[in-house]
C-alpha cells in the first residue's frame, strides 16, 4: 500500500492552514513547509529522509529549524534528496552561516546533521522500498515532480508547476498511474498571475486533464489559503469524468 499524508497542503500559511509537507512514510517526507508544527518529537526524530522539490520558502521553511532540532536532541542526522542545483541554492541562501548555520558541518564535517544526496531528472532512486522517479516540471525555479511507487501502487505528484507537457507525458506513458496529486494554486480570475508565477488555476488544470489518456483520481493541493473557497468553487465547475478532490491536512491519500 502507498499512502501520502498531507501535513500541510497549502501554498502559504494562514491560521490552521499550513505550507507543503507530504509524509510518504514515518521516515520520509517531501518538503518541509510544516513538519515542525505538525509532528511531535518522536515523529520528528523518525524522519531520516527529506526530499526537497525546489527552494521556494513555503517548501523549505522548516528545514533550518528541523536541522537545529535534530542536532540539539543528540546529534541525529538526516539525508536531503534534491538536484545539485537546488542543493546549491539551499546552501547559498539558507545554510550560509548568515541566515542559518551550515548544518553540513555541524556538529562536525565527519558527522554532519544534514547529508545531501544529489538526484537527477528521470533517474529513479529508492528509499526503504519506495521508488521515486524525479520529473522536471515547469516552475519559475528548477523544480521537481515525482512518480512515486511502492509495491504495485503508484502516485504521480506534480510539485509546483504551470502547464507542463513533461508531467503529462510521464503520466500517459505509465498506465499504472491512477492517482495524481496536482497543484492548483489560484482561482480562475487570477490566471495572469498563475501564468506569470508558473502555477495552475482550475481552468488551466482542466486543460491538462483533457490531455490525460485515461480516467484518474485527482487530488488538488497548493491552494492559496486565503483563496481556498474561490478555488474550490472554480474546481467544482470543471467538466471532467475524473474525480477531483481538494486535499485536506492529515487526510491520507491511499492507493492499494
Topology summary:
Elements: E1 2-8, E2 21-25, E3 28-30, H1 35-38, H2 41-46, E4 49-51, H3 57-60, H4 63-72, E5 78-82, H5 84-93, E6 114-118, E7 125-127, E8 130-136, E9 144-150, E10 153-157, H6 165-172, E11 179-183, H7 191-197, H8 202-209, E12 217-221, H9 228-236, E13 243-246, E14 253-255
Parallel strand pairs: 3-4, 4-5, 5-6, 10-11, 11-12, 12-13
Antiparallel strand pairs: 1-2, 1-14, 2-3, 7-8, 8-9, 9-10
- Mean pLDDT equals 97
Q: Roughly how many Å apart are the termini?
A: 5 Å
The main sheet orders its strands as 6-5-4-3-2-1-14
Query: Do you know the CATH topology?
Result: Metallo-beta-lactamase, Chain A
For the record, what CATH class applies? Alpha Beta
CATH arch. level architecture: 4-Layer Sandwich
Superfamily (CATH H level) name: Ribonuclease Z/Hydroxyacylglutathione hydrolase-like
Topology order in helix (H) and strand (E) letters: EEEHHEHHEHEEEEEHEHHEHEE
Structural class call reads: alpha/beta
Oligomer: single chain
Helix content: 25-40%
Portion in beta strands: 25-35%
Task: Give unreliable regions as ranges.
Answer: none
The biggest sheet amounts to: 7 strands, mixed
Q: Please provide the count of β strands.
A: 14
The overall number of domains is 1
Number of helices: 9
- Radius of gyration equals 18 Å
The backbone outline, from C-alpha atoms, is: globular
Amino acid at each position: 500500500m502507498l499512502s501520502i499524508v498531507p501535513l500541510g497542503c497549502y501554498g502559504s500559511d494562514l491560521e490552521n492552514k499550513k505550507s507543503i509537507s507530504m509524509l510518504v512514510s514515518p521516515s520520509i517526507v517531501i518538503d518541509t513547509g510544516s513538519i515542525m508544527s505538525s509532528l511531535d518529537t518522536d515523529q520528528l526524530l523518525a524522519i531520516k529522509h527529506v526530499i526537497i522539490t525546489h527552494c521556494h520558502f513555503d517548501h523549505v521553511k522548516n528545514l533550518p529549524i528541523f536541522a537545529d532540532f535534530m542536532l540539539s536532541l543528540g546529534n541525529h542526522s538526516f539525508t536531503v534528496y534534491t538536484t545539485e542545483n537546488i542543493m546549491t541554492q539551499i546552501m547559498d541562501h539558507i545554510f550560509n552561516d548568515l541566515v542559518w548555520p551550515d548544518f553540513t558541518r555541524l556538529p562536525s564535517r565527519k558527522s554532519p546533521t544534514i547529508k545531501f544526496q544529489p538526484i537527477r531528472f528521470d533517474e529513479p532512486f529508492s528509499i526503504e522500498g519506495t521508488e521515486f522517479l524525479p520529473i522536471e516540471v515547469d516552475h519559475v525555479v528548477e523544480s521537481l515532480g515525482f512518480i512515486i511507487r511502492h509495491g504495485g501502487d503508484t502516485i504521480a505528484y506534480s510539485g509546483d508547476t504551470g502547464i507542463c507537457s513533461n508531467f503529462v507525458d510521464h503520466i500517459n506513458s505509465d498506465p499504472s498511474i491512477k492517482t495524481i496529486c496536482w497543484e492548483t494554486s489560484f482561482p480562475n480570475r487570477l490566471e495572469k498571475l498563475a501564468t506569470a508565477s508558473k502555477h495552475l488555476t482550475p481552468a488551466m488544470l482542466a486543460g491538462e486533464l483533457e490531455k490525460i489518456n485515461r480516467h484518474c483520481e485527482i487530488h488538488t493541493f497548493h491552494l492559496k489559503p486565503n483563496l481556498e473557497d474561490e478555488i474550490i468553487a472554480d474546481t467544482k465547475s470543471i467538466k471532467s469524468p475524473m474525480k477531483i478532490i481538494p486535499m485536506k491536512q492529515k487526510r491520507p491519500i491511499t492507493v492499494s
